[in-house]
Structures are given as C-alpha cells and as structure tokens.
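go over this:
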Amino acid sequence: MIINFHPKELPSKKGLAIIAELNKANNHKIYHSTDKSADEWKAIILGDEQIILIAPVFWWAAGYEFDKWIQNVLTYGFAYRYSEAGTPEGMLKGRAFEFHLTHGTPEAQAGALRDNMRARIEKGIFGFCDAKVSVTFYDLQ
C-alpha cells in the first residue's frame, strides 16, 4: 500500500513519478492520506500489508498532511504509552514502514536537512513507537 501525503490540490510531478516507479508491478493500492479515517489507518498498521509513505519536504519537515496523519494515527494508547515509571514504551513492535521524501533543497543545504529529518523520522517518530522505517530522499534535480 502506498500512502501519498503530497497536497491533492497541487499534485507533485516528482511524487507521482516516484509512486509510478514504486508501483511499476502494479501490486500496491494507492491512497491519499485523507482517504481513510484514523481508525482505518490504525487497522491497516496492525495488519501485515507493506506500507510505503511518500511525502514532500516543506520547511525541513514532511509537510502538513504527514504531521496531521502522525498526530491522528500514531496516538497515545495505540502507538506508544508511558510506563508506571513514566518512561515511553513503543507499541508498534517493529512494524516496518518505507518512507520516500521529495525535496527541492539546494545540495548546499540538503545534507543538513536530510540529517535533521532522518533523526526526527527514525528516532523521534517511528523509533518512539518501536516501529522500523527506511528513509529515502529524492531531490527535484
């Protein structure tokens, strides 16, 4: 399953090209992040279907649609909780995600952008939930 976080009102040519490449065998269903409710996404995450995320980078983050999805789907009690001692415990038990990000940042700044985002995505979001994620960046050149 491919979940697209690019804005619907402004389709991304690079995003669509990456989706086409990832789905060249036509074996993935393609959805926009707004096509399902938070509860539907949670049910999918609990399943065993491969989940591929694709999002644009805006202002050194994965864009509004992705942040909104994370806040609505990877919620307390579903994706993480706190122990009685107050320490966070991830609840996704190694669930795997692929994350593909498009950006147009000039290479002089792109290294820092990639490092910052990789840490936030791998450790700050998916790692916090005890999930695994592979991250791939695509520039627009």
Q: What stands out?
A: The mean pLDDT is 92. The CA atoms of residues 97 and 133 lie 5 Å apart. The chain is about 35% helix and 25% strand.
